[in-house]
Amino acid sequence: ASGEAGTAGGGQAIVWRNVVLMGLLHLGAVYALSLVPRAQILTLLWAYFCFLMTALGVTAGAHRLWSHRSYKAKLPLRIFLAAANSMAFQNDIYEWSRDHRVHHKYSETDADPHNARRGFFFSHIGWLFVRKHRDVIEKGRKLDFTDLLDDPVVRFQRKYYKSSVVLMCFVIPTFVPWYLWGESLWNAYFLASILRYTISLNVTWLVNSAAHMYGNRPYDKYINPRQNTLVTLGAIGEGFHNYHHTFPFDYSASELGLKFNPTTWFIDFMFWLGLVTDRKQAPKEMIQARKERTGDGSA
């Protein structure tokens, strides 16, 4: 993006195009709320279904599969997750995973793309309003991302990303309610596309902001990420953030069997169907030992 005409507190150029577009998007979402009483119930259910698809494209796809390689997925599932990720419109899989690996490697430093030490606003949305800090770029170049581009699904999505976003994030969510049950294009667009997209963005951003600031730290009290139940509910299982940053290789991103974690349920169901293999988990003994050594005693 271009068009910066100022600098933020950290000396990073403000990307005014992003500021304006995000402002308009959120205004559109607020307007969309007024359309809810006038919409058909099927349209609202469809918008929620699209939200779940969007969320899985981020949580099960870009995050747990491609960023952390916490499990292996066969080609049909990778294609599904890539399509769902395009519905999320949060940068392509390669860029999302690249930034996320840098976030874990250099968490809460200037090399962290959404460094929570710079405050809630910056870690939530402000980081998208400025050029990346030079440390993010320089230290990011030192990490190996060849595994991402070795995946033909990642390469294909990256090559056709803009077209896939138009189709998955806007056209299909709008077209289905209009074509199948006669919803107005206006309602379908603002509810299943604009409102759904805006909510999904903010749910993801809350993992970067709220889950790095509010909650307990039963696994490692020396890091910022927290266990945040509200974020977990919105981000379908991604709010157990103290656990995740302590055991980032664990495909469940939480202690199995104890937490509300729809993303883990989805991965387990795909395992049952034979589309997932090699789910990595932290052994119970390792978890307990870490709790006793560095936890805050809250669990």
UniProtKB/TrEMBL annotation:
Q: Which GO terms describe its cellular component?
A: endoplasmic reticulum membrane
According to the entry, every stretch annotated as the Fatty acid desaturase domain falls at 45-248
Q: Its topology with respect to the membrane?
A: Multi-pass membrane protein
One biological-process term from Gene Ontology? unsaturated fatty acid biosynthetic process
Q: Per UniProt, what is one GO molecular function of this protein?
A: iron ion binding
Cofactor(s) needed, names only, are: Fe(2+)
InterPro entries the record matches: Acyl-CoA_DS, FA_desaturase_dom, FADS-1_CS
Q: Coiled-coil regions in this chain?
A: none
Report TM segments.
14-33, 45-66, 165-182, 188-207
Its keywords, alphabetically, are: Fatty acid biosynthesis, Fatty acid metabolism, Iron, Lipid biosynthesis, Lipid metabolism, Membrane, Metal-binding, Oxidoreductase, Transmembrane, Transmembrane helix
Entry's localization field: Membrane
Which family does the record claim for this protein? Belongs to the fatty acid desaturase type 1 family.
Show the domain comment. Answer: The histidine box domains are involved in binding the catalytic metal ions.
Q: What is this protein called?
A: SCD5 desaturase
This chain's source organism reads Atrichornis clamosus
